[in-house]
C-alpha cells in the first residue's frame, strides 16, 4: 500500500482540482468565474481613450473601476493611492487645503468621507502637479458593481454625487460630456512620459518604449545642466545611460524619477530598470527549484 501512496495522493489532488473547476467545464460558472458583460458606458470610454494618440494617464477618483480601460500608452492612477482619511503621500499631501463645511454633509459620522479627501483640488498648484504626472483626464467611475463608494457597509450614491458636484466647481477642470453615469474632466495641460523641466533651449526629439523596463530617448541640448523627468513611480533602480556613463535616478515631486544631464549637443540615452536582472535571476532559481522537486518526486515514485 505504501508503494502506491504517492500515485494515490496525486490522483486525489487532481480529482479535487477538477471538482473545484467543475462549474467551468459544465458551463455553469459562479462567483468570480461567472462571465460578466462590460457595461456600454465603459465600452464607450475605452473607445474614447484608446482612439487618442500619444501618451497620457487617467486619474480615477477614488479608484479605478474594474471595467475601466487602461493600457501601457494610457495607464490609470487611483487617487486613493495618495490621499485617504488614513493615507497622505506626496505630492498631494502638501497641497491639501481646508475644505468648506458645505462639502461633506452627505457623509456618515465615523465613516469614510470621499469628498473630504479631495481638498487638494482647491489648490491651483494641483493642476500643474497632475499635468507633470502625465494626467490628461480625471474620471469618477460609474460604480456598476456598487463596490467603491461604500458607507455604512453599503454602496452610497450620495457620496459619489457630491464628489461630482465638487469637481464641477473646480475652475481649471473642463467637464467632457461623453456618456451617462461616468464623469470625465480634462486638464488644461499635461506632460509626456519624458519631459525637460523649465527649459526652452533644450528639447526631447523623440522617445521610444523598447519594453516595460527600457526606454530610448533622443535629446537636443544647448544648455546644461538638464533635468530630464521620467514620469514613472520613483525607484532607485531606474538608471540613465549615455554611452558608458550611468546616472542614478533622483526623486522628483517625491514620486517621479529625474536625471541630471551635463552634456550638450545631440544626446542618445537609454533609461533602464536595472532591478529587472534580479527579477530574472529569481525566476531562473524558481524554475530550477521546481524542476529539482519534480525530479525528486519522479525518483521516489520509481523507488
Cα-to-Cα separation, first versus last residue? 14 Å
By oligomeric state, this entry counts as single chain
Q: Please estimate the helix content.
A: 25-40%
How much of the sequence lies in strands comes to 25-35%
Strand order of the largest sheet: 2-1-3-7-6
Overall geometry: globular
Total helical elements:
6
- DSSP E strands, number: 16
Order of helices and strands: HHHEEHEEEHEEEEEEEEEEEH
Give Rg in angstroms.
25 Å
What are the segments in which pLDDT stays under 50 over at least 5 consecutive residues?
Answer: none
Instruction: Give the number of domains.
Output: 2
Provide the structure class.
alpha+beta
What secondary-structure arrangement, pairings included, does this model have?
Layout: H1 5-20, H2 22-25, H3 40-50, E1 57-60, E2 76-78, H4 125-132, E3 135-140, E4 150-151, E5 154-155, H5 157-167, E6 174-176, E7 183-186, E8 194-196, E9 203-211, E10 214-221, E11 226-233, E12 238-242, E13 245-248, E14 250-252, E15 256-261, E16 265-273, H6 276-302
Parallel strand pairs: 1-2, 1-3
Antiparallel strand pairs: 3-7, 4-5, 6-7, 8-11, 9-10, 10-16, 11-15, 12-13, 12-16, 14-15
Word description of this protein:
With 303 residues, the chain is an alpha+beta fold. It folds into 2 domains: 147 residues, no CATH class; 84 residues. The protein is built from 6 helices and 16 strands. Strands 2-1-3-7-6 form a 5-stranded mixed beta sheet. Strands 9-10-16-12-13 form a 5-stranded antiparallel beta sheet, with no helix packed on it. The longest helix has 27 residues. It starts with a helix and ends with a helix.
